[in-house]
Amino acid sequence: MDDKSLFLLAEDALQNAYAPYSDFLVGAALLTKSGEVYTGVNVENSSFGATICAERTAFVKAISEGHRDFETIAIASSGGKAWPCGICRQFMYEFGDELTVVTGPDKDHLEKHDIKELLLEGFRL
Amino acid sequence: MDDKSLFLLAEDALQNAYAPYSDFLVGAALLTKSGEVYTGVNVENSSFGATICAERTAFVKAISEGHRDFETIAIASSGGKAWPCGICRQFMYEFGDELTVVTGPDKDHLEKHDIKELLLEGFRL
Amino acid sequence: MDDKSLFLLAEDALQNAYAPYSDFLVGAALLTKSGEVYTGVNVENSSFGATICAERTAFVKAISEGHRDFETIAIASSGGKAWPCGICRQFMYEFGDELTVVTGPDKDHLEKHDIKELLLEGFRL
Amino acid sequence: MDDKSLFLLAEDALQNAYAPYSDFLVGAALLTKSGEVYTGVNVENSSFGATICAERTAFVKAISEGHRDFETIAIASSGGKAWPCGICRQFMYEFGDELTVVTGPDKDHLEKHDIKELLLEGFRL
Questions:
Q1: Fewer CB in a 10 Å sphere around the end CB: N or C, chain C?
Q2: Do B45 and D44 touch (CB under 8 A)?
Q3: Is C111 tagged catalytic?
Q4: Residue C1: Cβ within 10 Å count
Q5: Of C67, C69, C77, which Cα lies nearest the Cα of C41?
Q6: Is D90 within 8 Å of A87 when comparing Cβ atoms?
Q7: How far is B92 from chain A (nearest CA, A)?
């Protein structure tokens, strides 16, 4: 699946976001190495620290179905281009430093970075 | 779906847990009010703070598919009975104080509590 | 130190809260078994999940100075009575189930619960 | 204060770390723009997700005392060189993109990066 198609799935997913505290809706679409796609949204919480971002939602969905190898994640938001926060970068990095991260204000203006650029000198136990 | 059947789904799910740092595998099965079931596992991280428990995995899966109303969550672990941690209680409580939480060492010795007993004087913005 | 005095320290601390996203300012004052007091505030983050509450701030301050045994924590907020969120309960519970938690809208209307009431069936590895 | 001296304070702090689950002790020393130093340690939790790293401990200590402007953070660990995890990078980035991060296996082999290199395309609301 190409980046544009994956980004469109992220955009579609975003409508299910639960973001009553920021009104910042985010959707993510994660492509596994085996070709399957898992989507996610951000889920906020009254105690902000319990909030889970769209990227991590997509990851835990895929992981709980047995996946461990990932190719690309696309991220769309109600506020335009949205690079992942540091928590999500940490979460993704656990599963390899080859992941490509794609985002943009719309499907025709996508940008990309590898996770190892986004988390230089990444930490792993 | 009855509690035993839900617990068995949690037990089945547990095999996909990613828990290399604790070797404590957890599975959860969440029943929505509309009768659908979403399962989850714990996903640990080199930076422990980025770890997501099985219960939250099940919740974000259901929420990202549009669900907001939940009936029961069952939890099974490789270490026997496993009540949810405080983070997960906070996460669940956001979606109502009527949720029933079920766990046990096996399907024939289940115990249950309402989330409002497990998070007395619960915090919501 | 009595509960009223501890609560007043929590109220004083609150002015240093960093809460630009919720405008909900929280202060905490933690009394160690050896009689010392550590205060804390909530520190929010653009990525909500990285937010740290006032209670955890007070705890990590005390712990990083070598303390492990705690007596009472008092919590004050700009929005009145504020029981700790589930994340903070989990954090506190790690250091014993005897801690007393005190909060109220003001020093003359304090309420209290033990952490083991606030985190029934608490989880510890 | 120079980087070596700051790193030595981080090394000293590390002895108070609470890390029973990983046995990976971390200390941090944070220098404010006004020249004060706050130290921190990692504080682990039975529910791994509630763990707070040394860097965030140092930050919340300083913030709760009214500081908002930071110069340098040094990090020492029982396992050698330790760049901050993604959660901590996100936490630090909230307070400016000019912070210098210093770590090394010992005071004579220090390396440094700016936070904006460590969190390229950083996320801020």
A1: C
A2: no
A3: no
A4: 15
A5: C77
A6: yes
A7: 9
With CB atoms and an 8 Å threshold, state whether A16 touches B64: yes
Q: CB neighbours of B109 closer than 8 A, spacing ≥ 6? A: none
DSSP C47: S
Does A3 contact chain C (CB < 8 Å)? no
C42 close to C18: Cβ distance less than 8 angstroms: yes
Helix H or strand E segment including C111:
strand C111-114
The order of strands in the sheet holding A37-41 is: A37-41, A26-32, A70-77, A100-103, A111-114
Residue D68 at interface with chain A, using a CB cutoff of 8 Å: no
How long is chain C? 125
Cβ–Cβ < 8 Å for D8, D33: no
Range(s) of the domain holding residue A33: 3-118
CATH of the domain at B23: 3.40.140.10
Q: Integer distance in angstroms from the first to the last C-alpha of chain A?
A: 32
| Residue among B47, B53, B85 whose CB faces D53 most closely | B47
Helix, strand, coil proportions of chain A in percent (round to 5)? Answer: 30, 25, 45
Question: Do residues A70 and A99 touch, judged by C-beta distance below 8 A?
Answer: yes
* C-beta separation of C124 from C93 below 8 A: yes
CB-defined contacts A:B, below 8 A:
92
How many domains are there within chain D?
Answer: 1
Whole-angstrom distance, CA of residue B95 vs CA of residue B89: 10
Give the residue from chain D lying closest to C20, CA to CA. Answer: D125
What are the tens digits of pLDDT across the range A71-122?
A: 999 999 999 999 999 999 999 999 999 999 999 999 999 999 999 999 999 9
C125, part of any domain: no
Banded pLDDT at C72 (limits 50, 70, 90): very high
Decide if D22 and A83 are in contact by the 8 Å CB cutoff: no
**Which residue among C16, C50, C63 sits closest to D63, beta carbon to beta carbon?**
C16
D87–A contact, CB cutoff 8 A: yes
Residue for token pair 């993510």: A28
The parts of chain D modelled with pLDDT lower than 50 are: none
Let me know if residue A124 belongs to a domain: no
Question: Does residue D36 sit within a domain?
Answer: yes
Q: Are the Cβ atoms of A85 and C44 closer than 8 angstroms?
A: no
In this predicted model, what pLDDT tens digit does every residue of B31-85 receive, in sequence order?
Answer: 999 999 999 999 999 999 999 999 999 999 999 999 999 999 999 999 999 999 9
- The reported pLDDT for the residue numbered D124 is 82
